[in-house]
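Query structure, 296 tokens:
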């Protein structure tokens, strides 16, 4: 091997190669960490331009350059920013943002780092930080159109986020007041509301709570027809009506039976109602009824 034509001093050969060792010694005397970091940065840039398959090599070059810990902070800032760009191409937004922050710490005048940090924050939905990065960048480059565009996106997303939080808080206040009204109404009727006997993540039942409609306390009720593996879920059964009244609406004699009841056995006068007294089962993700109750 001829050392003069080798690509990288780190691959100049083993210790028994006298020519390589001599050249390595010369390079080590002449090279400063700054020169070496600059060289590695340039090599990383070249590898990055070659496409997707060369990104790991480019990442390695940038990292090697930073490990040299050269004293040129502007150069370090550029290398951090370039590595952030590589992470952004790989959609590794968290690491990209970390490198952007390091680039800004090394050189607060690095506008490109502010732009990339803003873009990362917008993608990660950290809108408040996106606004801050963009505004700081524009203080250093007022005419930067790319930063202005990202700032506009960040402000729009931040406003929407604030409105959403405001609406959520208002909804929570209303829900809390409604819950209080339900508790007070139930107590006036001699009813104490405890923990729900049926806990289920199924979307059909999720969020079902006692409520008040036209000053009447209403309950969510699940009707199960086990022999047919069918069910009905009524979210608002009035407390001033009986189950017979509810069933009369569900199985009126003048309406054809449901498809799962071809024998028309579910009609008023033939129904026997059992209610859950002590719950010990669940409904699985497919909505299948799991046995585990005592009939009352």
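Result returned for the query:
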């Amino acid at each position: 091997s001829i050392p003069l034509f080798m690509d990288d001093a780190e691959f100049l050969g083993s210790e028994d190669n006298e020519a390589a060792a001599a050249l390595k010694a010369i390079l080590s005397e002449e090279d400063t960490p700054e020169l070496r970091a600059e060289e590695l940065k340039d090599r990383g840039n070249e590898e990055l331009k070659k496409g997707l398959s060369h990104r790991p090599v480019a990442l390695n070059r940038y990292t090697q350059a930073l490990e040299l810990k050269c004293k040129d902070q502007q150069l370090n800032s550029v290398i951090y920013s370039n590595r952030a760009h590589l992470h952004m191409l790989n959609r590794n937004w968290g690491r990209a943002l970390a490198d952007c922050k390091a680039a800004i710490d090394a050189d607060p005048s690095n506008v490109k780092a502010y732009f990339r940090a803003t873009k990362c924050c917008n993608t990660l939905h950290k809108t408040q930080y996106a606004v801050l990065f963009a505004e700081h960048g524009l203080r250093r480059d007022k005419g930067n159109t790319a930063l202005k565009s990202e700032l506009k996106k960040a402000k729009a997303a931040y406003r929407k986020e604030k409105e959403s939080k405001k609406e959520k808080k208002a909804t929570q206040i209303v829900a809390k007041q409604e819950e209080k009204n339900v508790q007070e109404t139930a107590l006036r009727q001699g009813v104490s509301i405890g923990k729900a006997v049926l806990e289920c993540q199924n979307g059909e039942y999720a969020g079902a709570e006692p409520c008040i409609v036209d000053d009447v306390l209403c309950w969510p009720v699940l009707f199960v027809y086990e022999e047919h593996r069918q069910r009905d879920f009524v979210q608002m059964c009035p407390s001033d009506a009986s189950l017979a009244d509810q069933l009369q609406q569900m199985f009126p004699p003048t309406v054809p039976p449901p498809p799962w009841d071809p024998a028309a056995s579910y009609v008023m006068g033939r129904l026997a109602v059992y209610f859950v007294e002590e719950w010990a089962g669940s409904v699985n993700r497919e909505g299948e009824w799991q046995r585990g109750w005592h009939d009352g």
